[in-house]
Fold:
Amino acid sequence: MTTHFGVKVLNRGGELKLTTDNYVKKSDQDNATSSEEVKLKLEKVMTRFNLNMSDFKSLSRDKFNEVLDNFISSNNFYEIKDLNSVAGIYGHYVMVLDEYCQVYIGTASRNDGIRGRIPQHWREKMYLARLDRGEYGSLHVDSFRAKDTTRIFVWRDDECTFFEDYTFNELSEGRLVAQFPIDYCLNSVMNNIPREFLHQRLRDRDLRDLRVYGKNHLSKTLERNNRRATWES
Structure:
């Protein structure tokens, strides 16, 4: 067992960082040899993985750090080195995956606070069926491993509103996510994005998907979203 940011983490699948070999569970890889359906799913999932990895490598690290610094300072986040310092504290957190020029913005509003929530991402098991479910956006944050998270920033809720109002917490998170350029952000759920930012966020996601996956049908989606935004403006 290894300690990372002050907490003990299990070597999920024997690895502390995401690789091509451990993205899909070994049992699912083995099943692909005996099932044509599983084999096709595996090929689809790995194609998605490789395309995203190529896109991550193409991103500007300087630009990423500039965006991150501006976001952190304008939203009063601060960096922590030890998760035990935020045990029982509720609020928002930013997990930084420097190798990939990506962040994930999350919310801790129950149980052991931020200290308990972040390691849940590191422990989560991503089965092939779940990996195959995504059609839009980037890779799921829970696909990454503990040591892929290289920096952590937090915003604590000193007024104790997070535990009481889950809807408010989600909307607050959505406003933060909407501020961060989608090219550098792993958050893909759109349900909590405030209405005034939603169409632009969907359009940004479609543009990213078009660049990463080259899906021709996204051109029509972009046109539809643009028309809808024009109608509602």
In short: The longest helix spans residues 36-58. The chain has a mean pLDDT of 88. The beta strands are 2-4, 7-9, 78-80, 91-97, 102-108, 151-156.
